[in-house]
Specification:
2 copies of one chain form a homodimer. With about 100 residues, chain A is of the alpha+beta class. Chain A has a single domain, classed as Arc Repressor Mutant, subunit A, CATH 1.10.10. Chain A has 7 helices and 3 strands. Chain A has a 3-stranded antiparallel sheet. In chain A, strand 2 and strand 3 form a beta hairpin. The first copy, chain A, is globular, with a radius of gyration of 13 Å. Chains A and B meet through helix 1, helix 2 and helix 7 of A and helix 1, helix 2 and helix 6 of B. Chain B binds a DNA duplex (30 and 30 nucleotides) through helix 4 and helix 5. Chains A, B: Keywords: DNA-binding, Transcription, Transcription regulation. Chains A, B: InterPro entries: ArsR-like_HTH (IPR011991), HTH_ArsR_DNA-bd_dom (IPR001845), HTH_MetalResp_TranReg (IPR051081), WH-like_DNA-bd_sf (IPR036388), WH_DNA-bd_sf (IPR036390). Chains A, B: GO terms for molecular function: DNA binding; DNA-binding transcription factor activity.
DNA sequence: AAGATATATCGACTTTTCCCGATATATCTA
DNA sequence: TAGATATATCGGGAAAAGTCGATATATCTT
């Protein structure tokens, strides 16, 4: 895990928010077909909640995914994103030592 | 403490290194007149060790100081920088919850 | 007061990031 | 297969960050 890349990914208000929202998807997004806890939240929902264009949000989700902090599942025409809690934990551990 | 600003400050290899070096100044810098543990390390020493110009390092130290992660003391013509361990701890705590 | 030394600040240039709109791609449905 | 919908990617303009050299400022020494 490249620390600089992770910090860059976290250096943006919207991306930090997304990470927060995905912590408790049921609290932050309207009910879905899928189990949000299990599968995640689709791009459109995140796009609606963040007030930025679809392309920007898609890009931001890629940035976060590249760090490993979130992961995606494609189901039909939707891509669902959810946190990778293990990676988040590992990052915390990393920060514990590297900071 | 503005999270985005902190992460931006940490989004740079050199600044991360500086923060590391200042963790154990006696191990990372040649002996000085002053007690490095207590007072810190002067800009010139950090400048020599990081391979960037004096102005860049001075700027980077300001960036770090603005986050509160390091603090400075002027003694004569030297400015000494050292970690603010309390702030570093607080940041870790913040990350623990905000991440 | 003059010169030396350490640091900070300024102006400039380059690279990166932030966002957008437009378009491409994938999948679904009729 | 045609259209609809969801997402990804591409190209670009504006703003911010990275980095430098030159210069200003502060302090020390003589």
């Amino acid at each position: 895990m490249d620390q600089v890349e992770v910090f860059k990914a976290l250096s943006n208000k919207t991306r930090l928010m997304i990470l927060q929202w995905l912590k408790e998807p049921e609290l932050n997004f309207p009910p879905q077909e899928v189990d949000m806890k299990e599968v995640g939240v689709c791009v459109g929902q995140i796009h609606q909640k963040a007030q930025l264009t679809q392309s920007t949000i898609s890009e931001y989700l890629s940035v976060l995914q590249r760090t490993g902090l979130i992961e995606s599942t494609r189901i039909g025409q939707w891509t669902y994103y959810k946190r990778n809690e293990e990676a988040c934990q590992e990052l915390k551990r990393l920060l514990e030592t590297s900071l």
